[in-house]
């Protein structure tokens, strides 16, 4: 007989956790696909526009 969740049973109970970094990698690929360029700011310090001084 086939093994697996019973019909109608919630599969969220048996789902495995995603690998470390999988969510970020998915976000990064979608960012490149859509051309949003959101990844470029990751790791940079935030400096408010009026705080630059000079």
Structural overview:
The model has no long low-confidence stretch (mean pLDDT 81). The relative contact order is 0.08. This protein is an all-alpha fold and 54 residues long. It is built from one helix and no strands. The longest helix is centred in the middle third of the chain and has 13 residues, at 22-34. It has one helix spanning 22-34.
- Reading the helices and strands in chain order gives H
How many helices? The count is 1
End-to-end Cα distance, whole Å, is: 74 Å
| Helix share, percent | 10-25%
Unreliable runs: none
How confident is the prediction overall: mean pLDDT?
Answer: 81
Which strand-content bin applies to the residues?
A: under 5%
Radius of gyration of CA atoms, rounded to a whole number: 21 Å
Question: What overall geometry do the principal axes of the alpha carbons give?
Answer: elongated
Given helix and strand content, the structural type is mainly alpha
- Can you summarize the main beta sheet? none
* Number of E-state strands: 0
Short description:
This protein has 54 residues and is mainly α. It is built from 1 helix and no strands.
Which helices and strands occur, and which strands form pairs?
Elements: H1 22-34
Characteristics of this structure?
54 residues; mainly alpha
